[in-house]
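Justification of resources, computational component.

The compute hours requested in this renewal are based largely on the per-chain cost of generating structure records like the one below. Each record pairs the submitted sequence with a full structure-token output. That output is archived, and it is also reused by downstream analysis tasks.
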Amino acid sequence: MASRTYYSEQARNRAYTERSAIAAVCLILGVAIGTVIALLFAPEDGESMRNQLADTTGDMLEKAEKQAKKLAS
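The structure output for this chain reads:
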């Protein structure tokens, strides 16, 4: 990575927190997309698949919301 000059320790911490938040969001999105693709290719009937997809999506959204609130505080 390129060397950066920060004017205060607070600025350094804020930049680190922002990078961490972006990494967490990307990780969550990657897991969510992978889960949806895996579920779509699983050999199950339609209604069962829709229910499972809805449950998984709801769980992922709840986790993302908790993580966002945690990072915002």
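Residues 14 and 20 are 10 Å apart (CA to CA). The chain has two helices and no strands.
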